[in-house]
Amino acid sequence: MPELPEVETVRRGLRPLLIGRTFTSAGTHPSAKFTPAVHTVGTTVADIDRRGKYLLVALDDHRSLVIHLGMTGQLRVDPADALPDPYDRAWWTLDDGRRFAFRDVRRFGRIAVVGTDLRSLPTLAALGPEPFDPVFTPQSLWADLHRSQVRVKTQLLNQRVVAGIGNIYADEALWRARVHPASRSVSRPAAARLHGAIIAVLTQGIENGGTTLRDYRTVDGGSGSNQYRLDCYGQAGEPCPRCATIMRRQVIDARGTTWCPACQRR
DNA sequence: CGCAGCGCCTGAAGGC
DNA sequence: TGCCTTCAGGCGCTGC
After folding, report:
1. What angle do CA A10, A14, A18 make, to 5 degrees?
2. What is the pLDDT of residue A175?
């Protein structure tokens, strides 16, 4: 599932391929999740940014093409003679003849085109701080978590306390900070550890080009390597890398969750 | 306004 | 071998 490190890796791969290119035609799957893509025809890509898990393709008319990869989304730039994939949900012809494609088997992804003000898209307006932004501090994390009784892991996933975390990096950060995922309150020292752990696991994820468990691919079709560096996610039944206690898995607020019952106490 | 619950999707994997 | 069921889960929407 593409989270911040995966989207950031895609962003970095896409920039040299798309910046300066003009969309000369576009087509989509009939779902309204993808049809807005056609409104970019005739524009030129000025830059590619990211906000949380959203890819922001800045266009030369000051609008932005916003792409969320959902669960199974992939972005590719193919040669002119490449065969289209049956799971391509949106595709653009570029002025150099190549083809830009958004492949998304489960169709959990979506596309929007917005004007100058990105906040006009409610989902972007509601997003919490970027984890690498200086406004995201141990104090702000504690204060935001403290405001709600919702379980800490669920708050990390809701994109309002901080943007960009999904199930993999939530489990990793909580493990690293030694915080129980189902906790409904977190001490100041625990929030400080969690703040550092969030930044650390996301930084490591970016450095490793993302986590490829199944669908996630880089722009060139390659895999990331962070799946070989996971301490917690998917490690249920294995010994904890820190204390050797067998790691446990349980569904918490409808999300599969793995933690160490010894290191991560309530 | 906060939040719980539901629906969207389909391939993979497991059971019989 | 083949059919059926279950599972994975981010997010938009609805309604309390």
Report:
1. 155
2. 97
> Is the distance between the Cβ of A132 and the closest atom of strand B smaller than 7 Å?
no
Q: Do A180 and A91 belong to one domain?
A: no
CATH number, domain with residue A89: 3.20.190.10
Distance CA A248, CA A259 (A): 6
In a domain, residue A99? The reply is: yes
Q: Name the active-site residue from A11, A50, A249, A255.
A: A255
> What's the pLDDT at A215?
87
Distance, in Å, from the CA atom of A266 to the CA atom of A251, rounded to the nearest integer, reads: 16
- Residue A125: per-residue pLDDT: 95
The answer to whether A253 CB is within 7 Å of strand B is: yes
Predicted structure pTM score: 0.96
Chunked in runs of 10, what are the mean pLDDT values of chain A (266 residues)?
Answer: 94 97 97 96 98 97 97 95 94 97 96 94 95 97 96 96 96 97 97 98 96 89 91 94 96 94 95
| A148 CB below 7 A from strand B atoms | yes
Establish whether A21 is a catalytic residue.
Answer: no
The Cα-based distances of A162 to A48, A133, A152, A222 in angstroms read 21, 10, 12, 28
Which tokens go with A200?
Answer: 């650390």
DSSP 8-state symbol, A238: S
